[in-house]
TrEMBL record:
It comes from the Bacteria. GO terms for biological process: amino acid transport. The keyword Transmembrane does not apply. InterPro entries: BCAA_transport (IPR051010), Leu-bd (IPR028081), Leu_Ile_Val-bd (IPR000709), Peripla_BP_I (IPR028082), TAT_signal (IPR006311). The lineage of its organism: Bacteria, Pseudomonadati, Pseudomonadota, Alphaproteobacteria, Acetobacterales. SUPFAM superfamilies: Periplasmic binding protein-like I. Residues 32-375 form the Leucine-binding protein domain. This is ABC transporter substrate-binding protein. It comes from Neoroseomonas marina. Belongs to the leucine-binding protein family.
Length: 403
């Protein structure tokens, strides 16, 4: 009996001791690895750096807010890859990210990089979210792993032409002739073909289409050709350095058409261009990606960027929004599984609101967000103003340009 009592007391005290002991800390959920692919060396390094910045801001915000709640508060860990401004670099980094075990990849920026990198990712059923790449080939190959949140150049060109017609009609149709200037790669050449097909249908005569390489070191011959043709409008589709060079050369040669109307231009909606070359940038118009100025988060994010002495470029809000899209898919998938993330991305609907682009309800068809849409901007008084769509424009267009 005594032995039984001692045993019973030991059991009671043992249980009490366990109950009184402090709770063990809860195990931290394993981090979710997310690949961020950007060209941070080479000709496209400026765009790549600002794309990386947008991804970093989103990841920091998600982690500070408790991580992915459906995964027990798992933090997102960035696995960064430098695409080196070429498709081969992008593919090489996808292979490294595959080995690292990332759950998805965001980025690429340039169309050739996005095209090659998303194809490489498809071999591993690895979800790939395009940040900017506008070539419609990216989402027309039937790749189930590839998603583009922003618009492609088919949608952008259609909007650009509609707005150009509205702009020209409202001013009394002062412009009739056009010269197209474009970079000679996948993005610029595709854009030029669309413009050549569509401009004549809308009453414009294309006098000439001028291609240039990326990078380009001199634009004097292009500017001299524009001078000799005397078009009413110049429509450039180029990356940052090439358009800045063209705009400055036209300014130096006193070439002033009735409008410089850019489509998906790397500089025209870029505060670096506006700040460094205000005279060349003045009154340049663009139809491009741009965040929604009506959303409070837009101003907050811009403030964070400028507090770092960085320029506000569209790459930052595009990548911020793309990472938020992946986080939303992870929450809905409930597990860090590639197949589940692809399924969740494909099923994204209007409930996804943690982005700052001027889009309607998100809905993917064959990997393309049907709500993705551009805006028209114009450089006015050393600032970038929205001139279309009218429902949230913060300035009236200045057109035609005189003098």
């Amino acid at each position: 009996m005594a032995k039984f009592e001692v045993a019973r007391r030991s059991l009671v005290f043992g249980v009490a001791g366990v109950l009184a002991a402090p709770a063990l800390p809860r195990a931290q959920a394993p981090a979710v690895k997310l690949g961020i692919l950007q060209p941070v060396t080479g000709a496209l390094s400026q765009d790549g750096e600002h794309g990386r910045l947008g991804a970093e801001l989103a990841i920091n915000e998600i982690n500070a807010g408790g991580g992915i709640r459906a995964l027990g508060g798992a933090r997102i860990e960035m696995v960064f890859g430098d695409a080196r401004s070429n498709p081969e670099g992008g593919v090489s980094e996808v292979e490294k990210m595959q080995a690292e075990g990332v759950v998805a990849i965001v980025g690429g920026f340039a169309s050739p990089i996005c095209l090659a990198a998303s194809q490489a990712a498809s071999r591993y059923d690895l979800p790939y979210v395009v940040d900017v790449g506008v070539s419609d080939q990216i989402v027309s190959r039937g790749l189930a792993n590839t998603f583009r949140f922003g618009p492609g150049f088919g949608v952008v060109t259609s909007a650009a032409l509609d707005n150009l017609v509205a702009l020209n009609d409202a001013a009394g149709k002062p412009s009739r002739t056009v010269v197209i200037v474009h970079e000679d790669g996948l993005f610029g050449s595709g854009m030029a073909r669309l413009l050549n097909a569509e401009l004549p249908k809308r009453g414009f005569e294309v006098l000439e289409t001028i291609a240039h390489p990326t990078p380009a070191r001199d634009m004097n011959n292009v500017a001299l050709r524009i001078r000799s043709l005397r078009p009413d409008l110049v429509i450039p589709s180029s990356y940052y350095a090439e358009f800045v060079l063209l705009a400055r050369t036209m300014q130096q040669q006193r070439i002033r058409p009735k409008g410089i109307y850019c489509v998906l231009n790397g500089a025209a909606s870029n505060y670096r261009f506006v700040r460094e070359f205000p005279d060349a940038a003045n009154l340049v118009m663009d139809c491009n990606h741009w965040p929604d100025p009506r959303k409070p988060k837009t101003a907050e994010l811009r403030q964070q960027v400028e507090a770092q002495n960085r320029f506000w470029l569209y790459n930052t809000p595009m990548n911020y929004s793309a990472v938020m899209l992946v986080a939303d898919a992870l929450e809905r998938a409930g597990r860090a599984d590639r197949a589940a993330v692809i399924q969740a991305l494909a099923a994204t609907d209007g409930a996804f609101t943690k982005h700052i682009m001027p889009y309607g309800p998100t809905r993917f068809v064959n990997g393309q967000n049907q709500a993705g849409a551009p805006v028209n901007t114009q450089v006015q008084n050393n600032d970038i103003k929205v001139i279309f769509p009218r429902d949230f424009a913060d300035a009236q267009p200045v057109y035609p340009v005189t003098g």
